[in-house]
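User: Can you predict the 3D structure of Growth hormone regulated TBC protein 1 A? Sequence below.
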Amino acid sequence: MELSGAEERMHSNPGVYAAAVTETPPHNIMSVILADVPRTFPENVFFRDSGSRLSKLRSLQRVLSAFAVKFPRVGYCQARSLPYSGLCHITRGFNYITAILLLVLRGRDEVVEEQAFWLLDALINHMLPSYYTDEMVAVRRDCMVLGELLRLNYKDVYARISECGVNYTVLCTKWFICLYADVLPVETTLRVFDCLFYEGDKVLFRAGLALVKLHYKQLLTCNEFPVLLTAFRNMCRDRQTLWCHEFINTMFSIKLKRSKIEQLRDECEPRVRMENNAP
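Assistant: Sure. Here are the predicted structure tokens for Growth hormone regulated TBC protein 1 A:
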């Protein structure tokens, strides 16, 4: 809470969450929230049964609704269709991110909900303010940046991906927009979130590079588009990502400078904007 600035904003805005949670967002947004809540981590005991005393489903719905009310510019990022990627690539965002926050926080429901609300605000409105927009320029840019980092660090994998003709937006959008929630196993995601609040969005690139590093040999065997897509999907849930301590150690074994990330962002963003303007 303190590292992210969420605690200070929460104490500076008393009653904001309590007021927002009593209101209802627009019908089109609320209907999506109601559809998404029961689909969030259904295998997890805390999100499996709404009638259980352990269930966090009600808290998840309340936080998402309050966030949509308080921050209508962002609203509720449930899904985006990315026709420019060559596929209708659908990704979910806020429900999984919020669920991870609810899992890690402790206390009475109303206290945990308010803390999750302000942590979500810290992530969406302050740490990653340009991610959740209609055109998703920043997310697409960072997918491209990750591709450039692969070119610099894992040339063979980069070459294989290029040979398969796979767009990095197709491969990595869900990684970035969900902040690896619903991508990595929950225990690993919790540790990635810890690092995210400590080091900032640089961690998102560390996690992506770590996935490639841990599956380097496997990825080199992929020789066509569907095989590569399957490998990228499967490598997020295998034994090497389940071992969260090994995964985090791998993340921080990779040398990565923020100045390089910012340089690549400056180079990649105009290319993304050109795609937007293409007929």
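The two ends are 45 Å apart (CA to CA). The chain has two domains: 6-78+87-127, 137-277.
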